[in-house]
Design a protein that fits this description.
66 residues, alpha+beta, 3-stranded antiparallel beta sheet, 4 helices, globular
Length: 66
């Protein structure tokens, strides 16, 4: 039996890809998670940390200055 990814889990990316997506260092994401500096949602399963692309895009959109 082949497991299928749901649409929600299909858009999950790891910390390195998430950092590249918003052009920060992976260590910056770690600091933000630990300090709560920004309300950037993440998914944690065991030791694995994942981010939804839609949450990263919303994070950038909310910080766009006009």
């Amino acid at each position: 039996m082949i497991a299928r990814k749901s649409q929600a889990s299909a858009e999950l990316i790891d910390e390195i890809a998430a950092a590249a997506h918003i052009t920060v260092a992976p260590a910056t994401l770690r600091v933000w998670r630990c300090t709560g500096r920004y309300n950037l949602p993440f998914v944690k399963v065991g030791r694995l940390v994942r981010y939804r692309i839609s949450d990263l895009d919303r994070f950038l959109r909310d910080r766009t200055q006009t």
